[in-house]
Design goal:
The complex is a heterodimer of chains A (405) and B (235).
Chain A (H helix, E strand, L loop, with lengths): L2 H14 L1 H38 L4 E6 L19 H7 L8 E15 L4 E9 L2 H5 L4 E4 L4 H5 L4 E4 L1 H7 L6 E4 L2 E9 L13 E5 H7 L10 E6 L5 H15 L10 E5 H40 L1 H13 L4 H38 L7 H28 L2 H6 L2
Parallel strand pairs in A: 3-8, 5-7
Antiparallel strand pairs in A: 1-9, 1-10, 2-3, 2-6, 2-9, 4-7, 5-8, 6-7
Chain B lengths: L12 E12 L6 E12 L3 E5 L6 H8 L7 E6 L2 E2 L5 H11 E4 L11 H6 L10 H11 L15 H13 L5 E5 L7 H16 L3 E6 L2 H4 L4 E6 L2 E5 L3
Parallel strand pairs in B: 3-8, 3-9, 6-7, 7-8
Antiparallel strand pairs in B: 1-2, 1-4, 4-5, 9-10
Helix pairs in contact in B: 4-5, 5-6
The chains are: A alpha+beta (405), B alpha/beta (235).
Chain lengths: 405, 235
């Protein structure tokens, strides 16, 4: 029996059993579409979480005073102000720390800002121009304060958008902080709420001014030092450079007894990444289960029709079909169903990728890998369960197949 | 009818069974369904194999139809040694040499009458398959039913489609297994008339039945009993 004629026979077999063909195709269709759609949703939410993490500044390192040692005599982190402006200038040395792009010392306190019309309680941070880069922020209006202004203890302030709006001020306005008048020189671009704090509700002033009038304390000591590495890739070496440098300037030989702690936003990023990985795995499992259910549906339809087809196989054998003829016929039938179901499933999945974001406000990002895997698995299930029972029946003696009930 | 390929030997013997046995099971459970049967059928014969159920006539029919091979003994079909053939060769013999008519008709319900008749032609090199199928349907008087599905036909008509399917390959022998078993007396008569007519036009027919009246249309009747064969004078 030649291939063309086998193909013709296979097609006629499919048309002769329309309901079974449609049900099988549907099983594969829904399995494939479900995988494409759920993995698409998982990918989209992972991307969204990742971009929010990136907005946090993943190449940011924070140095806090105190040790991470949690037992023995050492106190908790932040218990002593061991970080100084000398540390800051040491870290600013590009010779010693080539992978550090920007450094910003920070002191902070909670104060009430008073404008002409109202007042507003917020966090005031004292820092240097490096703050803007380490925090990965930009200005929407005005300018940031300069090194000269820091040196001159200038009475200038940069506000977050929320703070500026609450106070009803713009660049050029004056606000009063702890009774002293400050010129508003810049407004930060909104960055969105990250995590538990609103990063648009704050005021930034020169660190010198902050130490004089807001936080008090020694003008030499700082609460935190922010570092940004030159890129996400160099964050590790920036970490080591800062660690070495501080151990040296603090005259500490054993790194286990360091009086400072360096944390990285990438720690947060890796935590979040593992969360999204879990989420993706969860969604992929749901998808795998829908594929499995679709596959079992296909399997059932194929197996249920085996009795009827066993008689057909017996008859065809009696009329002169060889096992190879029959195997080819059923292979063509199953392959056609799998192919049609797979193509329609990809179409339905892509369509869902367009419709779901419009109807449900859920982002869907479709990538090629799940599409390929879904089609391969669905087609595989269709082929195996379409061909295997038929192949077994084709090996039966014709008379036994004919008599099957 | 188109001329059949002439057999190589002068003898017109189509079937030659010598000491053929079919044994099922092992040990105490051994059943000799066919026990040392020797039988010869010549071209143009109309042979009926009679016997009650359990007599082994179905097993004999499977062997004659090359649907099964004997455990021991020799079976030559038109000179070819069938008892040594593998599955592929048997399939080829069934396709080229034998036309089957079954008690349950065994038509494919999803196909029209002519598609059913066409089926055996799909497994051989054949041209004008549709025309050949339509000719075979005309021979059994169903030219006006070629596009009907089996469920749109009466039992007698379905069996006539099955006979057309057996005829379409111009086989050496038509093997009919209880062809009237599922039919009323009117349809039975019709089917037997067609078989008789085919025999008159030169077809070799082997008919398996338990019914003496049906066997009566044959020229020669043999009887099976407990796997053994004995000749009987035709009624």
């Amino acid at each position: 029996m030649n291939l063309l004629r086998t193909f013709d026979t296979g097609m006629r077999g499919l048309l002769g059993h329309r309901l079974r063909s449609i049900l099988t195709t549907l099983g594969i269709l829904f399995g494939v579409a479900a995988v494409i759609c759920t993995v698409g949703i998982g990918t989209a939410s992972a991307n969204s979480v990742n971009s929010r993490i990136a907005a946090l500044g993943t190449n940011l390192l924070t140095i806090s005073p105190g040790s991470t040692t949690s037992f023995g005599v050492r106190g908790g982190s932040g218990s002593a102000n061991t970080l100084t402006m000398d540390d800051v200038s040491g870290l600013e040395d590009r010779q010693d720390a080539p992978d550090v792009a920007a450094v910003a010392p920070v002191v902070s306190g909670s104060v009430t800002l008073v404008s002409a019309s109202t007042n507003w309680a917020t966090t005031v941070q004292g820092s240097t121009p490096g703050w803007l880069m380490t925090e990965a922020r930009t200005l929407s209006q005005g300018v940031f304060f300069t090194r000269q202004q820091v040196a001159k203890h200038a009475q200038v302030v940069v506000l977050g958008t929320t703070t500026a709006a609450e106070l009803g001020v713009t660049v050029g306005s004056q606000v009063s902080i702890s009774g002293a008048p400050f010129d508003v020189v810049g407004i930060l671009t909104a960055s969105g709420s990250t995590g538990f704090t609103n990063s648009d509700d704050l005021a930034v002033v020169p660190i010198t001014t902050a130490q004089d009038q807001i936080t008090g304390g020694s003008p030499d000591s700082v609460q935190r030092i922010l570092l940004s590495a030159t890129s996400t890739g160099t964050i590790g070496s920036a970490y080591l450079e800062a660690d070495q440098l501080l151990l040296q300037t603090h005259h500490i030989t054993n790194s286990a007894s360091a009086d400072f702690t360096i944390t990285s936003a990438s720690t947060l990023a890796s935590t979040a990444a593992s969360v999204t990985t879990t989420l993706t795995i969860l969604l992929a499992s749901v998808a795998a289960i829908s594929l499995l259910v679709g596959g079992i549906g296909v399997m059932n339809i194929m197996l249920v029709s085996v009795t009827e087809r066993t008689q057909e196989i017996g008859l065809r054998k009696a009329l002169g079909a060889t096992p190879r003829d029959l195997l080819r016929q059923f292979l063509i039938e199953a392959a056609t169903l799998s192919f049609v179901g797979g193509v329609l499933g990809v179409g339905a999945g892509l369509l869902a990728g367009i419709l779901v974001p419009r109807l449900a406000n859920i982002a869907v990002t479709i990538t090629p890998t799940p599409v390929v895997i879904a089609v391969a698995v669905a087609a595989g299930v269709g082929l195996i369960f379409g061909v295997y029972p038929a192949a077994r029946a084709a090996r039966l003696a014709p008379i036994a197949a004919l008599r099957a009930e | 009818m188109a001329a059949r390929a002439a057999p190589a030997e002068m003898t017109a013997e189509i079937i030659r069974l010598v000491d053929v046995s079919k044994v099922y099971g092992t040990g105490d459970a051994t059943v000799r369904a066919v026990d040392a049967v020797t039988l010869s059928v010549n071209e143009g014969d109309f042979l009926a194999v009679m016997g009650p159920s359990g007599s082994g006539k179905s097993t004999l029919m499977h062997i004659l139809g090359c649907l099964d091979v004997p455990t021991t003994g020799e079976y030559r079909f038109a000179g070819e040694d069938v008892s040594r053939m593998d599955e592929r060769e048997l399939a080829s013999i069934r396709n080229r040499r034998i036309g089957f008519v079954f008690q349950q008709f065994h038509l494919l319900s999803s196909m029209s009458a002519w598609r059913n008749v066409e089926l055996p032609l799909l497994y051989r090199a054949a041209r004008d398959r549709k025309q050949t199928a339509l000719n075979a349907l005309a021979q059994v008087g169903l030219s006006n039913r070629v596009d009907h599905r089996p469920n749109q036909l009466s039992g007698g008509q379905q069996q006539r489609v099955a006979i057309a399917r057996a005829l379409v390959t111009d086989p050496t022998m038509i093997l009919a297994d209880e062809p009237t078993g599922n039919l009323d007396s009117h349809a039975s008569r019709e089917v037997l008339e067609i078989l008789t007519g085919l025999n008159r036009s030169g077809h070799t027919i082997v008919l398996i039945t338990h019914d003496p009246n049906v066997a009566g249309v044959a020229e020669r009747v043999v009887e099976m009993s407990d796997g053994r064969l004995r000749a009987r004078v035709a009624a």
